[in-house]
Amino acid sequence: MTTLTLIPEALTREAFAPFGELIEASDAVRHFTINAGNTERYHDLARIEPGPDGRVIVSIFRGLPRSLPFRVEMMERHPLASQAFIPMSGLPYLVVVAPAGEPPRGRELRVFLAGGGQGVNYGPGVWHHPLLALDAVCDFVVVDRSGPGPNCDEVVLEVAGVIPALPG
Hints:
The protein is an all-beta fold. The chain is 2% helix and 46% strand.
């Protein structure tokens, strides 16, 4: 199988916008003080879409660490609804995505290095790789859909991608 090298890039709101929303407490988002001045609320960070006849559910996914280099050989999507991942472990992880639509080709894959304080919300139909924890077992709060109808498509890539070891 032919392979393509995938170099991780920084996860920013602008870079991730074609695939969904970045979930992050930063000065770039609407925020304000609540609870008599004891809490800063970072407000409305992601549009959770449960899809037709769906309901929003909250789960915890526990991801085992992956070793680099790592071969990206498959992708999945949830055509009916969004899916948000919010890290609980404070550790970096990788996000591999491709645009919604037809099954992705190798050159369409993008890889982001997410910080331990950054979550992502994949838009409905956005192709993504399952959890890619690094370094250690990592827990994620996952906000997604429960409801009727098939909501997970998987494809094997014609050209695999390889994420090399990270520098440093």
